[in-house]
Structure formats: C-alpha cells, structure tokens
C-alpha cells in the first residue's frame, strides 16, 4: 500500500511539472517578444533605454505572478489535500479581507457590503483560503462597472457546511461556460479587454478541492440598470474545528 501511494505521488508530481512547463510557455514567449521589441525600439531611437527596461521589469513581474499562481495550483493538485490543517474561523478571515477591498470598491464607485457570520470554523490552510477569497473579490471588482455592487457573505448552510460567497452585478458568466472558466488560462471573450492571466478561478477551484469543498458559479442578482446579470461565486467547505 505504501508503494502504491508513493507511485501515485510521483505520478502527480510528474504531471504537476509538465503542467507548470506547459502553462509558463505562453507568458515567457510574450516576455521574450516584448524584450525583443524594446531592443529594436531603443536601437531605432524610438524609446529610451530606461523606458524599455521599466516595461521589461513590469512584464517580468507579470510572469513571476503567473508562475507563483501556477506553482500554487500544481502543489495543491499534486498533494490532493492540505498538509497539517488547522482550524480557523472563515467569518473572521473574511472580515480581514473585506477591510482591504472596501476602499478598492469605493475608489471604483462600487457599493460594497459584507454580511459575515462568526464561529464558522473549517480545517485547512488559512493562507490558501484567504487567497481564494481575494481572487473572487478581484474578479468582482474588475468586471463590475461603476455604479454596480459587490456583496460578500459568510454563513453556515442548513447542512452544517460553511459557505463564503462573492456576488457582483457585472456581466456574469454564461451557464455553458461555467465549467470551462475554472480551467487554467481560459478567458472568455468579454474579459479579453481586461488584464489578467486566466488563473484566478483555477486557483480558487484547486483550493476548494484541497479542502474537500466545492466552488459553485451561479447567476447573480439579474440584469439591473443596464448591467448584469452578475455572478455569484460560492466556496463551500465541510465544517471542522
């Protein structure tokens, strides 16, 4: 049995390595092209070396961010579960994250509201769950137009499971695309004009699965004031602690 587990672990690690190599090829290719173009611009006198280097550094930051996200996803998928889980209150965690995003929403002209229960304990890795929630809020803020709303909620379901959800009044995700949008680097047509790697929901999905939970994507509050129908993204975890 031990040998079988080791073979399974090695297989998952090999798969993770292959996935990382595949996922990083595109951003590295884009970075190479940007550097090549910057060099040509400097040689032609169309740009100053400092400007070209600044742009290259920004592109490198983007690649590093992509690499870190891919690495986190691959580690979660390879392990299959959280090592050394600890009990923590999802409501308290969400309150801390909400304090970071309320001013971001205000700056963009969005109405932000939070309804957070307490004593919502689960077992797992608090940092990963915090990152997953941040990714959901990032998406909500990014795709919701000025005058819209973002709602954060943490509650206990009647089943006893713990649910944390982010609802927005943005364009939403068509039902036919909801399974596909959690795959790595998948970006729908209405998101092409926004910066991003297409890894945000992939990490959320990986975090949910590593905690024996689920990610649900549903329609938001519906069309309103020329926007919508919105998106409701809910992370559901088994209670623990």
UniProtKB/TrEMBL annotation:
GO cellular component: plasma membrane
Single GO MF annotation: phosphorelay sensor kinase activity
Subcellular location: Membrane
EC number(s) reported in the record: 2.7.13.3
InterPro entries hit by this protein: HATPase_C_sf (IPR036890), HATPase_dom (IPR003594), His_kinase_dom (IPR005467), HisK_dim/P_dom (IPR003661), HisK_dim/P_sf (IPR036097), Sig_transdc_His_kin-like_C (IPR004358), TCS_sensor_his_kinase (IPR050428)
SUPFAM superfamilies in alphabetical order: ATPase domain of HSP90 chaperone/DNA topoisomerase II/histidine kinase, Homodimeric domain of signal transducing histidine kinase
Histidine kinase domain span: 19-241
CDD domains: HATPase (cd00075), HisKA (cd00082)
Catalytic activity, as annotated: ATP + protein L-histidine = ADP + protein N-phospho-L-histidine
Top EC class, one word: transferase
Keywords assigned: Kinase, Membrane, Phosphoprotein, Transferase, Transmembrane, Transmembrane helix
A Pfam family: HATPase_c
Name of protein: histidine kinase
